[in-house]
Design a protein that fits this description.
This protein is α/β, with parallel strands linked by helices and 409 residues long. The protein has 16 helices and ten strands. The longest helix is centred in the C-terminal third of the chain and has 28 residues. The two termini are 31 Å apart. Bound molecules: D-gluconic acid (GCO) and manganese (II) ion (2 copies).
Length: 409
């Protein structure tokens, strides 16, 4: 093939997107509680060893593109749009008003705000560091994020504690750090109760997000399960206001099965919010688009969530790859992620209604019958238990559409 001239490359992308087909209309996409984070749309491709590959994009452009694609909600860190120098000053409210207008103009709602307590140098030792002035500043940022959330009409606040942990063991006393972290959350909930009362709004749902690895010797709350234990530790003044925002990839990173993690959160009634993306176990937080690596695993996750009636947001917390252009972010990255999600959601519905899956599950629960003696129990269930593997295979068939007559060979 001859080289593709620069000016012909966008039309090539457009043509191959059209040939691929399978995309949903903005109206269809809007039926789902999906949010597009400011930081995902504006991500320029930078990382520890990597320079940016894309040009900067402002919030107006992100919100406009989300509106056009049919992503109904937007989410933001307090510092994504408002610079650190403007935060906590009157100037921030002028920016919030511009955000509000952009949301309004494009038919997009703000679902979630999140406080950045990891990027700024003041948080080098986390927002729960030893020096009281660091913690006081952290509390001001947390409470201010609650204020911004209410001003923008959000219902969720997310906290990813970033470098809550240490590089050098012994320098930090872990129980103390956890108490200080709880103090910050307590201050955020207290402020929330006050503002919600003033405004006649419901309080926010405060969601903790775990990530097992960062460039740290130890992260103190590395997994959703650790956070569940923390929520019920007695350190929180309002444990009923605090739940989880698990992230699919973060659970995969430590070797967890996302579906089992979510099941534990569901049982505790703490699955408030869910960051959706994809990637690889025991690797860096690559944050690829949902379902692009592990579609079968994702199908399993959605079957669980659908069958338990999860109604919270699905937040597209992914990073368009460095190889994707600014144009590609809106032409390929976002719409393809949303469309894979919707397709997998629909297939999950088919799994739940599939007669093979239903009969196999019912047969396993019925058991072999009648046996009391241990050898009899083993014998009575021997053939039935093959159904586990058959169900795994059936999930694969449902994923690739064999139940709809798709055939090979
Ligand atoms: C990540 C983190 C962040 C958080 C965000 C919300 O994947 O690096 O998940 O994207 O979700 O900071 O607090
Ligand atoms: Mn991540
Ligand atoms: Mn996340």
């Amino acid at each position: 093939m001859a080289p593709i001239a620069k000016e012909k490359q966008r039309s090539l992308i457009d043509r191959l997107v059209a040939v691929s087909g399978g995309s949903y209309s903005p109206e269809e996409r809007r039926k789902y509680y999906i949010s597009g984070p400011q930081w995902a749309g504006a991500y320029e491709g930078q990382a520890l060893f990597h320079a940016p590959t894309r040009e900067p994009v402002g919030f107006e452009e992100v919100i406009r593109n989300l509106g056009e694609l049919g992503v109904s909600c937007w989410a933001t860190h307090d510092s994504d749009v408002i610079g650190a120098d403007d935060l906590l000053t009157d100037r921030q409210w002028a920016i919030v008003a511009r955000i509000d207008k952009a949301l309004d103009d494009n038919g997009v709602r703000c679902s979630m705000v999140t406080c950045e307590t990891f990027f700024h140098p003041v948080f080098a030792a986390s927002a729960a560091a030893e020096a009281p002035e660091i913690r006081r500043y952290g509390v001001r940022r947390l409470q201010n994020t609650v204020d911004i959330g209410h001003a923008l009409g959000a219902h969720y606040a997310v906290y990813w504690p970033g470098t809550l942990g240490y590089m050098v063991q012994g320098a930090v006393e872990e129980t103390q750090m956890l108490r200080w972290f709880a103090d910050g959350l307590n201050a955020a909930c207290k402020r929330d109760i006050e503002v919600a009362r003033e405004k006649g709004r419901p309080t926010l749902k405060h969601c903790l997000e775990a990530k097992p690895f960062e460039p740290q010797a130890q992260i103190i709350l590395p997994s959703s399960d650790a956070m569940l234990a923390f929520i019920s530790s007695g350190l929180l003044d309002h444990p009923e206001m605090v739940g989880l925002n698990p992230e699919y990839l973060h659970e995969l990173m430590w070797g967890g099965a996302a579906r089992a993690v979510l099941a534990r959160a569901l049982l505790c009634k703490k699955l408030f919010h869910f960051d959706i993306n994809d990637g690889y176990p025991l690797k860096h937080d690559v944050d690829l688009g949902v379902g692009i690596v592990n579609p079968l695993d994702w199908l399993n996750v959605l079957v669980l969530l659908r069958s338990h009636g999860y109604e919270g947001p699905f937040n597209l917390d992914f990073k368009p790859p460095r190889t994707t252009s600014n144009y590609g972010v809106w032409k390929v990255s976002f719409p393809s992620a949303v469309d894979r999600f919707i397709t997998l959601w629909n297939i999950a519905g088919e799994v739940m209604e599939d007669p093979v899956m239903q009969e196999a599950a019912a047969a396993l629960k019925a058991g072999g019958g009648g046996a009391e003696d241990v050898d009899d129990i083993v014998a009575a269930n021997k053939e039935l238990l093959t159904l586990h593997e058959l169900m795994g295979h059936r999930m694969f068939q449902l994923l690739i559409g064999q139940h709809r007559g798709r055939a090979f060979g």
